[in-house]
Design brief:
10 helices; 12 strands; AB_hydrolase_fold; alpha/beta; Serine aminopeptidase S33 domain-containing protein; disordered C terminus; Hydrolase_4; Rossmann fold; ten-stranded mixed beta sheet
């Protein structure tokens, strides 16, 4: 029973495109590796990364000269970096970040066969490359996991105490929970995200479509509820499993999140212990139309000072003892809830709004043109009709 169920969960997890959407070749004039069927760019490196499980995975690294943060993107099923290439370059441009994307073992032109443990080795190899080749520091890194990519993302995240932030895009509670609505975690399950996410000490953004018929919205909502440091989630009305990028709110909300975490001072590197926390983020659940569906307050304690994010909503009813506990960081589980909005409202001018709308439209058209999923789930939704 356990073995067969585990095999079923694994079958859900891995759908590499057949054949791969790209090949790798060495450009004669430069000696650099390139991907076929995409325009070569000087700001994109193509790499082969050895893993501890003796596979070689293909990765791309997109530079942004103005970036201070780097995003490590773990893609979803039925996709490879050939299909994701244009998404990667557009995200790097619009979010002002460096970005690395990689193929799992057995995906694209990566060697080996996909498995849960191999994906963990794959993301470790990508992270090692970012550190050693590009000098990326842990505190300047954001991990992004889409669908099954939420598995390796959270596995790496729980081992990086100084990680800047995590983004979960249509994430899964676990492999088995996609198939069966089980109430407990079994030993043969894969990608046990539900058990890992409470251990994260960095801000987490969760994005999920309300009409996702592959991974139910309840997966994203439950993971968000389990986060220690909640950031305003994005529940996209009408969004399914493969088309969230075409909604203008997707890019807008991501940009808002990147901007917020970028303004925070990097976490203090404390050997062998997790940093304490003394600042806060507000959280509220919003839909695609930008309406607040319910207000949720959650204390985000950090050792880093707040960048004008936590002052507005403080209750003035704190007594002197509570203030003393806060200043000395001796009570990290302060139960008083504070209603605050750390994000504030957008203050863009009319021209900036129009410029952003054109940018989103171009990004949306590009996503439609490349197709993110071979499972044909990029179908028209009521929002698009």
């Amino acid at each position: 029973m356990g073995s067969s169920t585990s095999s079923m969960a694994a079958k859900f997890a891995f759908f590499p495109p057949k054949p791969p959407s790209y090949d790798v070749f060495v450009e004669e004039s430069t000696g650099k590796m390139r991907l076929t069927d995409v325009q070569p760019r000087d700001d994109v490196d193509v790499l082969r990364l050895p893993t501890r499980r003796r596979n070689n995975v293909v990765a791309v690294y997109v530079r942004n000269p103005s970036a201070s943060l780097t995003l490590l993107y773990s893609h979803g099923n039925a996709a490879d970096i050939g299909q994701m290439y244009h998404i990667f370059t557009e995200l790097s441009l619009h979010l002002g970040i460096n970005l690395m994307g990689y193929d799992y073992s057995g995906y694209g032109r990566s060697s080996g066969k996909p498995s849960e443990q191999d994906t963990y080795a794959d993301i470790e190899a990508a992270y090692k490359c970012l550190k050693e080749k590009y000098g990326v520091k842990e505190e300047d890194l954001i991990l992004y996991g889409q669908s099954v990519g939420s598995g390796p993302t959270l596995e790496l995240a729980i081992h990086l105490p100084n990680l800047r932030a995590v983004v979960l895009h249509s994430p899964i509670l676990s492999g088995l929970r996609v198939i069966y609505a089980v109430k407990r975690t079994f030993w043969f399950d894969i990608y046990k995200n539900i058990d890992k996410i409470p251990h994260l000490n960095c801000p987490v953004l969760v994005i999920h479509g309300t009409e996702d018929d592959v991974v139910d919205l309840s997966h994203g909502k439950q993971l968000w509820e389990l986060c220690k440091e909640k950031y305003e989630p994005l529940w996209l009305k009408g969004g399914n499993h493969c088309n969230l990028e075409i909604y203008p709110e997707y890019l807008r909300h991501l940009r808002k999140f990147i901007s917020a975490v970028e303004k925070l001072p990097p976490p203090q590197v404390v050997p062998e212990q997790q940093p304490t926390k003394s600042s806060e983020f507000a959280s509220k659940s919003t839909d695609h139309n930008g309406e607040t569906s319910r207000a949720i307050t959650d204390k985000w304690e950090k050792s880093r000072p707040s960048i004008s994010l936590s002052e507005k909503g403080r209750h003035h009813s704190m007594d002197s003892n509570e203030k003393s506990r806060t200043s000395t960081n001796t009570d990290r589980r302060d139960k008083s809830r504070r209603s605050l909005d750390g994000l504030g409202k957008a203050r863009n001018s009319t021209d900036q709004t129009e410029k952003a709308r054109n940018s989103f439209d171009r990004f949306s058209d590009m996503v439609r043109s490349v197709g993110l999923c071979n499972a044909h789930c990029l179908k028209q939704t009521p929002h698009e009709a």
